[in-house]
Design the sequence.
């Protein structure tokens, strides 16, 4: 395989918050593999941080605002993308949110509002982004979303986020079915627990991390660098016939029953 399997490709990256973000690990790996990157930031609070990180790849690396709960902002974001390129090849969706209290109380106490917010931000946004990305992928492409084992099994305190991730994974399959004949592939990476801002929002996250170390066949969870490598694989021709799948990068934890 070439040292730069993504050379000549343009990637849109949603979800970088800081240098610990999984989105950042994959973005760096994509850039190292030759891709040109365009970033979003969600809200003024994150603007400066994302802009500063983006300069890693050159002072002129594009960064634009996009609140993924707003169709108008998604439209505006892709109009901004068109200032730099007529087509895109890759999309990373690493976006998730649920109100803090919904990740602390028991799931049965989830409010209607928290349920709706979690699904809008964490799952529907993949559909909304794919609608716009499809129009800029005339030669096909790869759309990758980030999930977690809580989508298929109960993880303490993950609560409504697990239900939203289940919706995300189902959406991945339906999008893959719709877009496959256009050579657009849609897959999920299900990462083991990683020390990110989002991860630390889950109550007793430290216990979850330790549990993986104690029970995963490899005796550990994954590293950001390993997630980056998986992101490159799913973006490259090496995965040209893989779509609608959830790839577990979790030290093997997913295979263990007891």
Sequence:
């Amino acid at each position: 395989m070439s040292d730069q399997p993504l050379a000549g490709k343009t990637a849109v990256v949603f979800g970088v918050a800081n240098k610990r973000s999984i989105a950042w690990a994959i973005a760096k790996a994509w850039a190292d593999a030759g891709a040109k990157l365009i970033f979003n930031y969600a809200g003024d609070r994150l603007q400066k941080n994302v802009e500063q990180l983006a300069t890693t790849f050159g002072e002129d690396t594009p960064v634009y605002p996009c609140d993924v709960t707003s169709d108008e902002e998604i439209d505006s974001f892709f109009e901004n993308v068109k200032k730099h390129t007529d087509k895109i090849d890759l999309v990373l969706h690493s976006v998730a949110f649920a109100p803090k209290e919904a990740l602390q109380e028991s799931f049965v106490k989830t409010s209607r509002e928290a349920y709706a917010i979690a699904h809008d931000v964490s799952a529907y946004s993949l559909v909304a982004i794919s609608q716009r990305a499809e129009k800029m992928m005339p030669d096909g492409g790869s759309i990758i979303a980030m999930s977690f084992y809580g989508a298929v099994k109960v993880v303490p305190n993950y609560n409504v986020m697990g239900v939203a991730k289940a919706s995300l994974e189902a959406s991945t399959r339906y999008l893959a079915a719709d877009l496959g004949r256009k050579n657009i592939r849609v897959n999920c990476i299900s990462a083991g627990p990683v020390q990110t801002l989002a991860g630390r929002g889950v109550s007793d996250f430290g216990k979850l991390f330790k549990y993986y170390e104690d029970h995963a066949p490899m005796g550990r969870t994954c590293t950001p660098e390993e997630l980056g490598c998986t992101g490159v694989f799913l973006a490259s021709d090496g995965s040209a016939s893989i779509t609608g799948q959830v790839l577990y990068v979790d030290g093997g934890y997913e295979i263990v029953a007891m």
